[in-house]
């Protein structure tokens, strides 16, 4: 619930952070992506820690780090300081998140109970997602922006006490190695690639530093895979990806979060900068999608029992893709109804896919790989989300910049130099610059910026829908027909079958 709150609070707070901290467009993406990326690259390590030292102990430690970093994030006063605090938040989440899922899988070994427990686990994300925007909007309306991060502190304290009181401890029968080389290679590889994607609209795709980062990232990831293949006890058993249900379910998780996180990053800014909503209004407008996730996720195990795993995942991904495609119809004046319907449809689709996919992933793991598998599942989710923010945010930013460049060389030619530079960077800066201009020039600048931002959403929506459709097609072809859940006992990885 705490992680669900943290994700939606930030979306509501982004426009406020833009006004208060004045980050560049890439800086705004890094505020969102620094947490996600730090979380993603360290989740494998967090899962291995739980398998080795006990999942309850690691969960409590992660909660302590997360709560402390939340307190620190509330006290910083610069964009760089907030990015650094978000990195530590990501570290805390990477430690605690795999322990939640691996503990559930360890305690609830009976397939039907496990599916129900994981469905509830996924539904609680909906609770956090519903509470986050409301609390965030209230706090932003009545207090300083840092107060949104303080939400996590009491939740972390309560969770620590509850974990120590009621949660049984468990660990892997054969603890894995921690393998710092693998963690370093994966962290460097993903960081280089995401940095290049975010930097490309500013420096150009052909810039030496962008191409260099892409090459360095690819080399690190190839080295990571090679290193893991030659380890007797790797953090990731790569042979698991030869299991069709495991690999397809992992891909479904990545695709769903690619679209959801990328588009929510853009839509929260649309509602405030283009539609003119307050932070509190944005929080209220996210409730239907969060409620849909809250209601549908716990029921997903029943859906799988009735129509099968393949049909459930495929249908969910198709609905999410349809939700993304609807955003192609968004205009400068269309307002909330279309956005709300689109995001609610995507949330329901995600709910139909996420819990069954998570159950399929965890059900294919042997007992001594539950923590690492949970870490891998969460890594796939967050890499998908991180790339969603980076790729869709970058595409939207590129389209915005090109649209604004045309306007500034045409109808808006002759703006003061400071306003011209601000308008080219991002919509928030353009609107702030318009406040210093006289009418009708101020209105013309705001309208041009809104049109440019909407054009960026259109491009991001097209790409998000294409990725979603491709994922649904892959799921419909790869997941075996008639699969109504995960095996009654974990599937033995191919590496343990002598292959």
| Annotated CATH architecture | Up-down Bundle
Shape: globular
Percentage of helical residues? over 70%
Oligomer: single chain
Terminal CA distance reads 40 Å
Question: Biggest sheet, open or closed, and with what strands and sense?
Answer: none
What percentage of amino acids are in beta strands?
under 5%
CATH topology, what is it called?
Growth Hormone, Chain: A
Q: Class by helix and strand content?
A: mainly alpha
- Which radius of gyration do the C-alpha atoms yield? 22 Å
CATH superfamily: MFS general substrate transporter like domains
**Mean pLDDT across all amino acids:** 79
Task: Give the total of domains.
Answer: 1
Number of helices: 18
The CATH first-level class comes to: Mainly Alpha
Pick out the low-confidence regions.
485-499
What's the number of extended β-strand segments?
0
SSE order in H/E notation?
HHHHHHHHHHHHHHHHHH
What is shown here, in short?
It contains 18 helices and no strands.
Give a quick set of tags describing it.
499 residues, 18 helices, 0% strand, Growth Hormone, Chain: A
Outline the structure in words.
It is built from 18 helices and no strands. With 499 residues, the protein is mainly α. The protein has a single domain (2-179, 231-404, 451-497), classed as MFS general substrate transporter like domains (Growth Hormone, Chain: A, Up-down Bundle). It is globular and about 70 Å long. It starts with a helix and ends in a 21-residue tail after the last helix.
Secondary-structure map:
Blueprint: H1 2-21, H2 25-53, H3 55-75, H4 79-107, H5 111-142, H6 152-166, H7 180-203, H8 208-229, H9 244-274, H10 279-285, H11 287-296, H12 300-307, H13 309-326, H14 336-363, H15 370-408, H16 417-425, H17 427-434, H18 441-478
